[in-house]
Write a structure and sequence with these properties.
3-stranded antiparallel beta sheet; mainly alpha; Helix Hairpins
């Protein structure tokens, strides 16, 4: 029995690691790339911390969705809530990244005035239009921000497509479930009607039998 539990726990842990090994590898690869670009002896702490937070968020939300699906508690509204929360969190974190790493080589350029622009509001705005793949074109990233914007655009497109597909499938499953429930209710209602009619027929036959028994009793008494 303990061996089975240990084996089950090992398989569960292995499956979890396999599911998130891409995210973990991405964190370390981007960390190493950042180390090379900044030409430092250690990993850049802010960027590495940011990537770590993203990885934890990815694990958290995927684990919630997986757990909900296994328990069959995953509703469409619950799905929308988690998707919205994850989207806003990602947009804000990337906006913070665009604000924290501004220097002479890495900045956001306003094409209208041809000057770099700063501020958390600008960073979050640019992060939002990049994540949503809108890209009005009035703000252009320079330096490392180009790679970061490209990564955020890819993440936004991938997550939007994945969550949209999952949401549509869940919606269709919910509609199918409701249809099955309605069909079951109709069948039950029909069965109730049939039982009610059978009860009426049986009651009518019982009355006729009682009448016949009374008539036979009269004839015997005569």
């Amino acid at each position: 029995m303990p061996i089975r539990k240990i084996k089950k726990g090992f398989n569960t842990t292995l499956a979890f690691i396999q599911q998130h090994i891409v995210g973990t590898s991405t964190v370390f690869l981007l960390g190493i790339a950042t180390n090379y670009m900044f030409n430092t002896d250690i990993l850049h702490p802010t960027f590495f911390s940011f990537l770590g937070v993203l990885l934890l968020l990815e694990i958290y939300f995927v684990a919630i969705i997986r757990n909900s699906l296994q328990k069959k508690e995953h509703s469409f509204l619950n799905f929308v809530f988690h998707f919205t929360s994850f989207s806003f969190t990602t947009i804000f974190l990337f906006g913070l990244l665009f604000t924290s790493f501004v220097d002479d080589n890495n900045y956001l350029l306003d094409l209208m005035v041809k000057q770099p622009i700063y501020g958390l509001d600008t960073g979050v705005y640019f992060s939002g239009i990049t994540f949503l793949s809108i890209g009005y074109g009035e703000i252009v990233p320079h330096g490392l921000f180009r790679m970061i914007a490209l990564a955020e655009g890819f993440i936004g497109s991938f997550l939007s497509l994945s969550f949209f597909s999952l949401g549509v499938s869940q919606l269709f499953l919910q509609m199918k479930k409701n249809q099955i429930i309605e069909n079951a209710k109709r069948i039950l209602d029909k069965e109730k009607d049939i039982l009610s009619q059978e009860e009426k027929i049986i009651s009518k036959e019982n009355r006729q039998l009682k009448k016949m028994a009374a008539i036979l009793k009269k004839h015997k008494n005569k």
